[in-house]
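#struct-help
A.M.: can someone run this one for me? Single chain, 133 residues.
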Amino acid sequence: MRGHRHRPERKSDGVAQAGRHQHQRLRLQPATIEVVKGTTITWTNEDTVNHTVTTGTPPPTPVPTASPAGGASPSPTASRTPGPSPSLTKGDGKVDSGRIDATKTFSFTFNELGTFTYFCGVHPRMVATITVK
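D.P.: on it. Structure tokens below:
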């Protein structure tokens, strides 16, 4: 995944007025941004896989399973308990883009003051924050 990049237009006081965010290389770029109330941000998926923009707290990252004693790799047929599908991860419902296909965009206008943590529902380790003043 190429990432999610945000390139805001800046006012002289340093607060972003409008912007563009991109999914790129499993990262949201930049990781934090400050905008004024009423700003519309457009996210562009510059990757080859789907991503989402989902506000809320991302689910905990699963802990990798340890190798068996002696360092041998587990058998490919070893039984594993599947976790929840990250593609089903939902946030707080304030912003939920649904899947953003490669090369597609999603826009949202922030009319509420506050700090919004958002993540990719497909790749929940991709996390960023938008502060609306």
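A.M.: thanks! The two ends are 31 Å apart (CA to CA).
D.P.: also worth noting: The longest strand covers residues 16-24.
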